[in-house]
Please model this.
Amino acid sequence: MAVPGKGFDGPLAGVRVVELAGIGPGPFAAMLLADLGADVVRVDRPDGGGLAIDPAYDVTNRNKRSVLIDLKADGGPGRVLDLVERADVLIEGYRPGVAERLGVGPEACHARNPALVYGRMTGWGQDGPLARSAGHDIAYIAITGTLGMIGKAGEPPAIPANLLGDYAGGSLYLVVGVLAALTHARAHGTGQVVDAAIVDGAAHLSTMIHGMLAAGGWQDRRGANLLDGGCPFYGTYETSDGGHMAVGPLEQRFYDEFIALLGLAEAAPARKDLARWDELREAVAARFKERTREDWTAVFEGSDACVAPVLSLREAPAHPHLAARGTFTDHGGITQPAPAPRFSATPTRVRTGPARPGADTAEVARDWDVPALAAPKTP
Model:
């Protein structure tokens, strides 16, 4: 097991990140930077906060180190600014104006470190009518049109956990922005603020669909399009044992193989006859209901029919392909996704388990040369 704070590897080795503790997309973004080799120091509050789970299981805090600083106490903001002075990046997920009131906003940070990349993660963004309102993933994706795309026709929109908003539209866009700004800072010596809003990122994810909508190739309603379940050969089907198979042979040659392996080559209506899509869907559904998920998995194994079993979270790590690639890893007794993407020259790994609040204060004080961080508090 790597010693916390030592042996940093990956393409971001040498990059220092200060993360002001929060929940959701901010911690995930910081985890991704840590997975890529950055030295991420999470500033936790003495009174806790965060997810209502044991910190030992919060794997979004893996590969990080933690210090305890009370930003509302005398000297608290100064300790954070001492870290900022030695950092390349800061990430915070407060509502607009909160970091400024606490004394660790962009102006205060850039006064100490002009080259700092200051990453701000919010749902609504730093400005606009809703900027200071409370919100969660589901509301952010709701107003962008992305939630309204998902689900069956005539039924309420399906909720994609918090993957689409918090993480795809939020964390990943924050990381892209931070890395772009870091490249600029290293070239020009000046930092900047990255305003990553989930509403912006979630909307941006639908760029292709907006193009199709403008071209008349997408209907602005659920379950009526090629990629939203409206197409009978792009969707999911139940098997005899209550499992499901995911089907996606959009190209003709893949579709031909799919229909042949399904055993409907002679009976299925033509795929291009949209008037008979309901008939085709019923035929495919009836066929899948004749056998188990395991049976159908074996039928399509190794084919180009673009069919896969729908696995649960606990089942996924054992899938032969994912197991062969090491897509999941076990660390500290917790099965979790391995760092991604992969690098040929600077490989990444899970170096340490979830950072425990405050456990690394003395070590960070030494490594970052911030002795006041570990100094005992005066009464």
